[in-house]
Amino acid sequence: MSIAALRTESTTAAKSILSSGVDTLTTLSGALSTAAPYADISSAESAFVAAIGADVEKSNDVVDGLYTIVRDALVMAIGNIRVLEKFIGLRVPQMEDGNNFGVTIQMMMAKLLKDKREQLEKSLSDTSKYYSSRADAIDKFNHLSNTSKVETTSESSGKSTGGKDGDSNTSSSNTSSETKTSTGSDKIDAHRVKSLAALDAQMYCDLKFALEGMVDDYLIILDNFEKNMDKLEHPRGKAYGGYGSGGSSMVY
Fold it and tell me: Are residues 195 and 119 part of one domain?
């Protein structure tokens, strides 16, 4: 496949993303309103404290649902932005003197896309730490039973000489295991419960804000493409053919 064919393929993919952009935003906004029922963090914390009750090890269904929706949306948006970045990179014309206004627009849009993508990638990375933090918080409850298993293996070898069968080597291996269970206090630490609920509420807000920010950024990207699509696709006019056989993507 030639560079020109790949450039055409990239343009088709970018235009497909842009044409479905409003529908994508509508779907995500609807999903967020359903999955994020609490308007403020205090309401979320109160609800989560009540939901934890005496079972601190059960998952938070609200945060779990939002976690899946938001992270899937972030991955989708990051992938789409990368497609748009490639589209612009493959539409940068060969370097020439003058008539570079369209190229300037391409450079500005490329920077916007890069900045937004990196923000989304950071949100994706930051939210991945939720379950590790939650597990650490649960481990600090002193009323939970703790079971540990210790396995020990011992080996020995020896050599005997003489005897009816002559010299011989002997070896043996023994494995033993021991399971220990420790029982904690019968009383659940109320402050630990609030701490766990606060952690859940913080992640609830982080996820909610991440998706709201992503929707806003995606809208800004769509708007900028709509306003500048002609210059982004044809920075030196539709009659220009100076992309070269390799389609230089040098930004200058």
Answer: yes
Q: Kindly state whether residues 83 and 173 are assigned to the same domain.
A: no
Average pLDDT score over the chain: 86
Supply the range of the domain harboring residue 170.
146-182
Q: Please check whether residue 10 is in contact with residue 87, taking contact to mean a CB–CB distance below 8 angstroms.
A: yes
What is the number of domains present in the chain? Answer: 2
Instruction: Convert the pLDDT of each residue in 50-97 to its tens digit.
Output: 999 889 999 999 999 999 999 999 999 999 999 999 999 999 988 776
Lowest pLDDT segment from 8-12, 16-20, 154-158, 211-215: 154-158
